[in-house]
Amino acid sequence: MAAVSGLMWRPLRPVSGLLKRRFHRTAPVALQVTVRDAINQGMDEELERDEKVFLLGEEVAQYDGAYKVSRGLWKKYGDKRIIDTPISEMGFAGIAVGAAMAGLRPICEFMTFNFSMQAIDQVINSAAKTYYMSGVAAQHSQCFAAWYGHCPGLKVVSPWNSEDAKGLIKSAIRDNNPVVMLENELMYGVPFEFPPEAQSKDFLVPIGKAKIERQGTHITVVSHSRPVGHCLEAAAVLSKEGVECEVINMRTIRPMDMETIEASVMKTNHLVTVEGGWPQFGVGAEICARIMEGPAFNFLDAPAVRVTGADVPMPYAKILEDNSIPQVKDIIFAIKKTLNI
Amino acid sequence: HFGRPRWVNHLRSGASRVLVASRNFANDATFEIKKCDLHRLEEGPPVTTVLTREDGLKYYRMMQTVRRMELKADQLYKQKIIRGFCHLCDGQEACCVGLEAGINPTDHLITAYRAHGFTFTRGLSVREILAELTGRKGGCAKGKGGSMHMYAKNFYGGNGIVGAQVPLGAGIALACKYNGKDEVCLTLYGDGAANQGQIFEAYNMAALWKLPCIFICENNRYGMGTSVERAAASTDYYKRGDFIPGLRVDGMDILCVREATRFAAAYCRSGKGPILMELQTYRYHGHSMSDPGVSYRTREEIQEVRSKSDPIMLLKDRMVNSNLASVEELKEIDVEVRKEIEDAAQFATADPEPPLEELGYHIYSSDPPFEVRGANQWIKFKSVS
């Protein structure tokens, strides 16, 4: 079972300069697909492939999805497979888990992960823990990676670009375990180059494996979701100054791919983690703790540093909002501090 | 593993012994049962029913097994061989046995934490149940679930979060409708849980989508230490589904429960949508083993129910008075049941605990093995699916 959602409201940001440059690079089939369309494709393919798959959530059917992620699916598959629910998160999350227990493969969509808090009991206590306990061969404006990532029994994935989004939702649907997919709503409308492999119906991004988006030698920058783009922007700026960053896109929060991160740190000797969530008990904190426990610690030339959202509830005024999440300048600052330049 | 329930084997051996006796019994008898109170229904279940000798003996044995099993659990708990949470259902046997009698093994059932009786009626052995309570590897959940997390084929536990099982049950009903095999899901909750908001969310969606869900409120008059009058603005639990038709059933009479269940299951299978049943029943024990059960109710009340409404006694009297069985025959069943429970308790006490190496097992399904962190970074467990 996969839980699919995104964040609330905020206006789309313009496509970054880095990405614009990418579009001009010629490839045999330079197809561009937005994150929204990639998720749509992924779900469509899986609905077609396995009749046990169905989608439920608020406005997913006749409205085409609050963020249009499920556009066209109801027309194609009908009432049985694409179900509009009343505003009853706890109720329909429980229904999704029950249907999964009885052998179906529901995709349960929360309009925003803030709404999923009402249902977190069903996700954690009913979905995540059941396999372990049964002995049968068991979430507006904040990032929920740390909340769901805390819980054994769940898998948690966090796509950045279109390729990630399509590949991860397909893997999530096919996985026999409860999977929480943390979509970032701000990314829905952003187009990315779609490599030929990603256009195949069997394209999957494996759960539990990170991707090195950019090779580098001076410092390892680890991130997930939208901030991956900011890290790449920061890397582009720093490259002009002779600093080469290795940018890792985690793709999966739980189970975390520490191997890739450790191998990179052992090569670069420096680490900065970047996330949108709050600092306390977050993804970066977990990465730093694990680095200390593993072989990479002895390769660090400086303490690992975290770049995170500000430790405040999300404010409204634009200037406050902008400064509550990590910006490119914050990432550059942290990298330079770590490298002592 | 999930094959024929074990009691069938016992029935065979019990029946063959009895045939040696020279008594002639009736094949069946007709009984009057209490009329159910109805909500949004023109007609209810029939007020008479036919009980065959074979069924009667089966129900008697099953109820007696549940009774003795729960009492044995009480004993083992007091000896500290069972620990943690333990919620017993003695007094409520007509519910689990009666519900099972009204459905098919291919139907589905989910309940909350007072689940040992259902675990048995849905097909697991007393052995597996008691060994799970004592936390041994021979337990139905390999010792990892305990009292509140037992599962069997088409039985989804055993759920600790009060009320959470109700949307789950509606989801199972959704799967029943989706698969189109005319199966129904019995979704149970207590009088305490009946006030949970998520239950009303489940009512709404079940009715909206006409899910084949039988919502069942097992009303034993007390939600832990709080009587129904102190918890609910309306104690007519069979009406609280509002737009969902309901019936209020005498939960101490197994025949009444059986007929009501047959009626409700037929209603759901016909595609009309969900239906609600309130079973009026009673528990002899307190809420759990840590509750003596006499601070919020009187011993006189408990005694009165025992002497006037005990479900096993009611069935026994009916059968003996209609010549469906003899007192001696039923006593023989009692002896056999006692032995079965004793053997199971022996096993549950002697079986070893699950091996420590398996602490990390079964976190995920169908995954390759991986490592799980223990109490510190140097302690690692292997996790196999």
UniProtKB/TrEMBL annotation, chain A:
Gene3D superfamilies: 3.40.50.920, 3.40.50.970. InterPro entries: PDHB_mito-type, THDP-binding, Transketo_C/PFOR_II, Transketolase-like_Pyr-bd, Transketolase_C. GO terms for molecular function: pyruvate dehydrogenase (acetyl-transferring) activity. It is an enzyme of class 1 (oxidoreductase). It catalyses: N(6)-[(R)-lipoyl]-L-lysyl-[protein] + pyruvate + H(+) = N(6)-[(R)-S(8)-acetyldihydrolipoyl]-L-lysyl-[protein] + CO2. It comes from the Eukaryota. Residues 33-190 form the Transketolase-like pyrimidine-binding domain. Pfam families: Transket_pyr, Transketolase_C. GO terms for biological process: glucose metabolic process; pyruvate decarboxylation to acetyl-CoA. The keyword Oxidoreductase applies. Keywords: Carbohydrate metabolism, Glucose metabolism, Oxidoreductase, Pyruvate, Thiamine pyrophosphate. CDD domains: TPP_PYR_E1-PDHc-beta_like. Its cofactor is thiamine diphosphate. Its EC number is 1.2.4.1. The pyruvate dehydrogenase complex catalyzes the overall conversion of pyruvate to acetyl-CoA and CO(2), and thereby links the glycolytic pathway to the tricarboxylic cycle. The pyruvate dehydrogenase complex catalyzes the overall conversion of pyruvate to acetyl-CoA and CO2. Heterotetramer of two PDHA1 and two PDHB subunits. The heterotetramer interacts with DLAT, and is part of the multimeric pyruvate dehydrogenase complex that contains multiple copies of pyruvate dehydrogenase (E1), dihydrolipoamide acetyltransferase (DLAT, E2) and lipoamide dehydrogenase (DLD, E3). These subunits are bound to an inner core composed of about 48 DLAT and 12 PDHX molecules. Interacts with DLAT. This is Pyruvate dehydrogenase E1 component subunit beta. It comes from Cebus imitator. The gene is PDHB.
From TrEMBL, chain B:
Keywords: Carbohydrate metabolism, Glucose metabolism, Magnesium, Metal-binding, Mitochondrion, Oxidoreductase, Phosphoprotein, Pyruvate, Thiamine pyrophosphate, Transit peptide, Tricarboxylic acid cycle. GO terms for biological process: glucose metabolic process; pyruvate decarboxylation to acetyl-CoA; tricarboxylic acid cycle. Its EC number is 1.2.4.1. One of its GO terms (molecular function) is pyruvate dehydrogenase (acetyl-transferring) activity. Coiled coil: none annotated. It is found in: Mitochondrion matrix. The keyword Transcription does not apply. GO terms for cellular component: mitochondrial matrix. Pfam families: E1_dh. Residues 62-356 form the Dehydrogenase E1 component domain. Its cofactor is thiamine diphosphate; Mg(2+). Its main location: mitochondrion. Transmembrane segments: none annotated. The pyruvate dehydrogenase complex catalyzes the overall conversion of pyruvate to acetyl-CoA and CO(2), and thereby links the glycolytic pathway to the tricarboxylic cycle. PANTHER family: PYRUVATE DEHYDROGENASE E1 COMPONENT SUBUNIT ALPHA, SOMATIC FORM, MITOCHONDRIAL, PYRUVATE DEHYDROGENASE E1 COMPONENT, ALPHA SUBUNIT BACTERIAL AND ORGANELLAR. This is Pyruvate dehydrogenase E1 component subunit alpha. The lineage of its organism: Eukaryota, Metazoa, Chordata, Craniata, Vertebrata.
